[in-house]
Design brief:
Layout lengths: L1 H10 L4 H7 L4 H16 L6 H14 L9 H24 L23 H20 L1 H7 L3 H9 L14 H8 L2 H10 L14 H8 L2 H9 L15 H7 L3 H9 L14 H7 L3 H9 L14 H8 L2 H9 L14 H7 L3 H9 L14 H8 L2 H7 L5 H7 L3 H7 L3 H9 L10 H4 L9 H8 L2 H9 L11 H7 L3 H9 L17 H4 L5 H10 L42 H5 L8 H9 L9 H8 L4 H9 L4 H13 L14 H7 L5
Helix pairs in contact: 1-6, 3-4, 3-5, 3-6, 4-5, 7-8, 7-9, 9-10, 9-11, 10-12, 11-12, 11-13, 12-14, 13-14, 13-15, 14-16, 15-16, 15-17, 17-18, 17-19, 19-20, 19-21, 20-22, 21-22, 21-24, 24-25, 24-27, 25-28, 27-28, 27-29, 28-30, 29-30, 34-36, 35-36
């Protein structure tokens, strides 16, 4: 309690003015004023300060506190000091130009401060925090134990002091001596108060558990010789002294406890024995000592985990070798189906995984999720282990798992391991199972989508070279690359056959969806159009889309007009995209860019009305209405003959460089 109060005191220290007002009051008077201040905080915020002071005085008289000073002199004194505090606040606030008569300017106390930030509460909080510590330090019995002064202890006993008394910190003298390592005092106390050798403190600790926690081995020997029980444990955690010394890797203390009959297989609330703790701390000598004293290897905790499993999980190769030499089962499994081999692969312990495999660990024991050690090795990037497991892992189990090692290697950016898996024959077009695909917002299914979503061109190139299809995901990877403005990835996917005009399942549009992902990025849109994206489809509206406003809007600002509700069964037109409130300011530049990649077209009524409110919109309409240049029409014809998949061959045409640049829109 004193530590918590001390932290609260550090967070909100009383000011000098607080000590001037309240420093000479007793705790009972401070409590009374603190209650009054808390009542003020909860009262109506519209009352004046003077009214609140009077009412506080009334509440003080109507609701006297039990054990408080009830005399009129004491009440008036506390009340007078409280009024002075309120007046001081008012003077301070008026000097700062604030309104404090309704206490609106007081901040809300933080969680790390005392319950209220008022001065009386703050001072009371500080005084309470100091009192427990000061009382403990002032106690002569505590000072004698802390200094390990046996003469002073005998003097206190001669003066009639109870050597078994509870100290102000909540521990009795035997607890304190064991914790402090005061061996001379402990010897006297064990002689005079031997009945307290197994006495529990408020924290449910015995002198032995406190000596163990503090690493006081000499005190442990004395307590055990006096009959201290080795199996007393915390009522909630059920951790014995032996468990605690293993937790602290104290080999000497463990030997002392074991020599006095401590049980090596006692379990805590999770079913763990001291051997679990020794293994988790990586202490081979402790593990050997416990095994020599009867610790069992065939036990499992409430999660089905064995000591060998813990050793594999922590990467303790020497301990695993010890356990295997003592007959531990290398195929031990937890309740979720994970094996020791799977756990070693999962945590990247290559040498340990190789050792388990060489000792006969089965690589085809799946977890409850259907995953094999090969999956774990692919995720952690263990190339040596993967090369061992790959030839012996069952392909049917891998397929039934709904998750390929190729997915995991790609998602975790292990390029060399990915190349190894692909060269071993694992498919670059492996698909996630529906339940795993649902975990992703884009419902991805292919390894290629993982690479594109991360912007990993190296992995994407490896997958595409191995035959990955860029059209298997519900949301095409090309659209993801466009949305990320990753033009290098767009080029890579396009070179391997990705269709710039591919539709999105469930979202019918009359134009290429890729253009909708870059409507506010004209540079990316121009790049897609140069690669062969179909710009003419953006002008295919027949005049029936919802972007065509009602006639009664013709005399009003088009930017303020609202489109009619759209029929969900109707194919979306590009003019509907431009008709959205966010896109209307971009309508002019977008239409102008698209016109550079089409021939003679006719603008629909919706686009004309949108352009009529745009700067330069009339000029753009004239550009669409007038016949296009013959050179421009020839350029479009040549590009159309090549098609988007052969558009990169433009630079191989046997024509002057100037014409090639014109055909490719270079420099535009």
């Amino acid at each position: 309690m004193s530590a918590g109060l001390a932290s609260g005191r550090a967070a909100s220290c009383p000011s000098v003015d607080d000590y001037d007002l309240y420093g000479d009051l007793e705790e009972e008077e401070l409590i009374a004023i603190a209650v009054e201040q808390s009542l003020e905080r909860n009262s109506a915020g519209t009352e004046s300060s003077s009214t609140r002071v009077q009412e506080c005085g009334g509440l003080r008289e109507r609701v006297p506190l039990a054990g408080s000073c009830s005399g009129s002199r004491d009440r008036s004194r506390a009340h007078r000091l409280h009024c002075a505090h309120v007046e001081r606040d008012e003077r301070t606030a008026v000097g700062e130009g604030e309104r404090v008569h309704n206490h609106e300017a007081r901040p809300t106390p933080c969680s790390h401060k005392p319950p209220y930030s008022d001065s009386a509460f703050t001072l009371l909080w500080a005084r309470m925090g100091e009192s427990a510590q000061e009382r403990t330090k002032m106690d002569p019995l505590w000072r004698a134990i802390q200094q390990d002064d046996s003469a002073a202890l005998y003097a206190l006993e001669a003066a009639g002091t109870d050597l078994g008394a509870v100290l102000p910190n909540g521990l009795n003298s035997l607890h304190e001596a064991a914790w402090q390592g005061s061996t001379r005092c402990l010897r006297i106390l064990l002689k005079e108060k031997k009945e307290l050798v197994n006495c529990r403190s408020k924290g449910n600790d015995t002198p032995l558990t406190l000596a163990v926690s503090a690493g006081q081995t000499e005190c442990m020997k004395m307590l055990l010789a006096a009959g201290s029980a080795t199996e007393y444990c915390n009522s909630r955690m059920l951790e014995t002294p032996l468990y605690k010394v293993c937790e602290g890797r104290n080999i000497k203390a463990a030997g002392i406890l074991l020599s006095h009959g401590a049980k090596a297989n006692a379990r805590n609330h999770l079913g763990n024995t001291p051997l679990y703790e020794a293994v988790s701390k990586g202490s081979l000598p402790l593990a050997e000592m416990l095994l020599a004293n009867g610790a069992r290897l065939d036990v499992t905790n409430k999660f089905g985990v064995s000591p060998l499993f813990i050793a594999a999980q922590c990467g303790c190769l020497d301990i695993v070798k010890l356990f295997v030499s003592r007959g531990a089962n290398v195929n031990t499994k937890a309740k979720d189906g994970a094996t020791a081999l799977y756990e070693a692969c999962k945590n990247g312990h290559d040498d340990l995984a190789v050792f388990l495999f060489q000792q006969g660990a089965d690589p085809n024991l799946p977890t409850m999720e259907g995953l094999l050690p090969l999956h774990a090795a692919s995720k952690s990037g263990c190339e040596d282990v993967t090369s061992l497991l790959l030839p012996v892992s069952c392909r049917d189990i891998i397929q039934k798992s709904g998750l390929s090692p190729v997915h995991l290697a790609t998602a975790n950016v292990h390029h060399d391991l990915l190349a190894m898996l692909l060269s071993a024959g694992l498919s670059a077009n492996s698909l996630l199972s529906p339940d795993r695909s649902m975990l992703y917002e884009d419902r991805r299914v292919t390894p290629l989508m993982f690479a594109v979503a991360k912007g990993d061109q190296h992995a994407a190139r490896l997958l595409l070279s191995a035959g990955a299809e860029p059209v298997l995901d519900p949301l095409p990877p090309l659209l993801v690359a466009v949305r990320r403005q990753d033009l290098a990835m767009v080029c890579l996917l396009h070179d391997y056959g990705a269709d710039l005009n591919q539709a999105v399942t469930g979202h019918d549009t009359a134009f290429p969806p890729a253009l909708m992902f870059c409507t506010m990025d004209l540079h990316t849109m121009h790049f897609l159009l140069r690669l062969g994206c179909n710009a003419r489809a953006c002008f295919s509206c027949s005049g029936e889309s919802t972007a065509h406003l009602e006639d009664d809007h013709s005399e009003r600002d088009v930017s303020q007009a609202k489109p009619k509700p759209r029929n969900p069964l109707q194919v979306m037109q590009f003019c509907e995209v431009l008709d959205s409130m966010d896109m209307r300011p971009w309508a002019g530049p977008i239409v102008k860019l698209l016109l550079e990649f089409v021939g003679n077209i006719r603008l629909c009524a919706g686009l004309r009305k949108l352009l009529s409110s745009q700067p330069g919109g009339v000029w753009i309409q004239d550009m669409a209405d007038n016949p296009r240049l013959l050179a421009h029409l020839c350029r479009l014809k040549i590009r159309g003959q090549l098609g988007q998949q052969r558009m990169h061959q433009l630079h191989a045409l046997a024509v002057p460089q100037r014409i090639r640049n014109y055909l490719d829109y270079s420099g535009v």
